[in-house]
What we know:
Blueprint: H1 18-29, H2 39-47, E1 84-96, H3 97-103, H4 106-112, E2 118-121, E3 126-129, E4 138-147, H5 157-173, E5 177-180, H6 184-201, E6 205-211, E7 218-219, H7 220-230, E8 233-234, E9 240-243, E10 253-258, H8 268-272, E11 277-278, E12 280-286, H9 293-311, E13 314-316, H10 325-341, H11 349-354
Helix pairs in contact: 5-6, 7-9, 9-10
Amino acid sequence: MKDRKNPPAPDDGEPFSSEALNEALRPMLEPLGLGLRTAGEADERAAALLPMVGSEDVSGMLVRPSMRAQPGEDRDYLPEEAVEWVFDVHLPGTVSATRVNEAFGDEWRERFGHVCLYGHSPDENSWTFVNTSDAPERFDALLVPIDLSPSSDDVSLSSLQHKAKGVASAAAELGGYAKPRIDVEMAVAQATRIAQVYDRYEEERVRIVLAADGDDLFDGEQIWDVMSCLGLRWGDMDLFHWENRDQSHGDDHLFSVETSSGEGYFLPEEIAAGETHVEDLVFSFGIPRNADPLITYSAMVAAARYAQQRLGGTLYGSDGEPLDVERETARVRACVDELTSAGFPPGEDRTLQLL
């Protein structure tokens, strides 16, 4: 899943395979009955037990957000100034990546915190990440961002002053100097505004609940067929997802389907064995991270109504009242407008990094 809250970590060699990562996290995951798998592995697991094609194809009723132009391979990678305090590091010519990583090495990070360094390559005439295995060999300028989001350890005046001194000392070690794009007092004020946006919108979601009537329950195999007919895919977190095909904008999933029954997720093994019977289906997505919340909500309504047609039950909105599409659409539109006015339009990189 895309997660721009966490930039690429230093690459020390071969990437983790899912098997290696599973092994590393096994002590934590096993007690919870969890593990990691790729999308292909999830499909193989499901296909061995259940049909991967629905009894009909109604996926066309779910209108997708418009695709955005994909960024080119030669694009610049730069900090997000909306959520980071950025320092320009001016160098006396070119400096090797090795020297840069030494100046901002483990000892520096222990004192001043982890940062994701960006460097300008004179050979490629572009900005990119410094601390990755395929980084250029030399740089003639650096950008050092300090995280101002609530996920940062400390954004107080004294902490930011301390980090600014750290950036200045590393720049001096490289023979250069560092200059912040805004002063520290403005950075503290920006961090305060960011925290207000985070507190207001971090949990902002829209839901549609299809609840079985009376003592009825929805059967797992019927649910699987409904989701397959809609073009939803079972996968992450053992839920069904309407996938986002636009890799440059918004989260990996446009909306997801879970249940409030039991553990909240769906296991193919239990569905195939006839052991899954749930009280409801919960269609939902987070507004800030969605590629186009209004279009996605319209598609989610269509999906929920199709599921109701097939399974029965009653539809409820986010407020627990019978579904009022017009009222909920107005709420989603208002949230989109507020986020955009605050400088964090839904689905944008800066918004994904914060929310």
